[in-house]
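My current task is to audit a protein record that another person submitted. Thanks in advance; the entry in question is below:
***
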Amino acid sequence: MRIIWTILVKDLRIEWRSRETLPSMCVFGLLVVFLFNFAFETAREETLRLLPGLLWVAFAFAGVLGFNRSFAAERENGCLEGLALAPIDPSTIFLGKMLANLVFLGVAEAVVIFAASLWYNFSFFPALAWLAAILFFGSLGYAALGTIFGAVAAHTHMREVMLPVLQFPVAFWILILAIDATADALRGAPRVEIAGGVYRVAGVSLIFVVAGFLLFEYVLEE
C-alpha cells in the first residue's frame, strides 16, 4: 500500500505542478457537452434519452487524453524504465497509476456533469446516489483499461492514435453497461432494476481491474 500511495501521490504532484492533463480533460468534456447542446432538442424527454450516452461519450474521450499523458510523461523522461528496474511488484505500479487516472477522470466527470446540469437544465439530485455508484464502478473499469492500454501504446510511435484504437473495442462493454445503468437511474426506474445495472457494471470493472493487475508485469517488460 505504501508503494501504491507513493506512485499515486507522485502523479498527483506532477499534475499539480504542470497542470497539463486535467485541464485538457475538463475542456474536452465541456466541448462535447456544449456542442451536443446545440445539436439536439432540450426537452426533458429528449434529454432523458440522450443524456446518458452523451455523458459517457464525453467521459470516454476525456479519459483517453488523460491516459495518453499518464505514460507519455514517464516515457519522455525515462521514468518508465526506472520504475521497471525498481525492486517492487509491477502490479503495484499498475494500481498506483490506475488510481491516479481514476482521480483525474473523476474530477473531469464532476465538471462535465455540472456543465450538463446547467446547459440541459436537468437536475441529477434525485438519482445522485445511484449515479455516483455507476460513475465510480464504470470509471474504475475504464481507468483500469486506460492504464493497461496506455502502457502498451507508450511503447509505440503513434501512441495518440493507438490508444483509442486498442482501448475502445474492449471498453465498449463497460461503456454500454454504464450507459444503460445511467439511463435507468435518471429516468427513475425501480430500485431492483437500477441495482442490477450497478452490479453488472461493477462485475465487468472488477474483471478489468484483475486482468490489468495480472497482465501489467508482461506489458512493462515488453
The two ends are 25 Å apart (CA to CA).
